[in-house]
Every structure is written in structure tokens, then in C-alpha cells.
Amino acid sequence: MDELRVLAAHRPPLCFIDAAEHGSQPIFSGYLVDLLPTLLNQAGLQLAYELSVFTGSGGTLLQNGTWTGTVSWPYPLLL
Length: 79
Hints:
The chain has 79 residues and is α+β, with helices and mostly antiparallel strands. It contains three helices and four strands; from the N terminus they run βββαβαα. The mean pLDDT is 75.
């Protein structure tokens, strides 16, 4: 089974992230969190997905052609 890694930021009402207590995993909820499995199902995709907390910016393209923020996270995987 293929895996999809998803970065999530606390952006109500699209995504709520309840802080983890005592080292437990954070709880994700909200419109986009609920929509993800529906989209995968409608597309006929069999994917396991992992939500990870991201607290930075969306990203900025730098003059040297690299990215900062969320966009920079998967970028090396695309090369």
C-alpha cells in the first residue's frame, strides 16, 4: 500500500489540532481532515496517510530557487 504524508496546520475551521498531552499524538479534526478520506475513496486510491503538525508558514520561493515553509518539506523528494 502506498503512503501519503500530509502536513496539517491549525487553521480553523479547515483544520483544528488539539495539543497532545503527555507525549500522545495530537488530535486532528475539521473540514479538510474529514474530507481527505472521502477524496481518497472517491478517487479509488488505497493509501495510508499520516498527518503531521506544521507550525510554520506556507512557504516562500527564494531567489536561489529553493523554498521555505511547508512547500520546502516535500521538495527534495521531487528531485
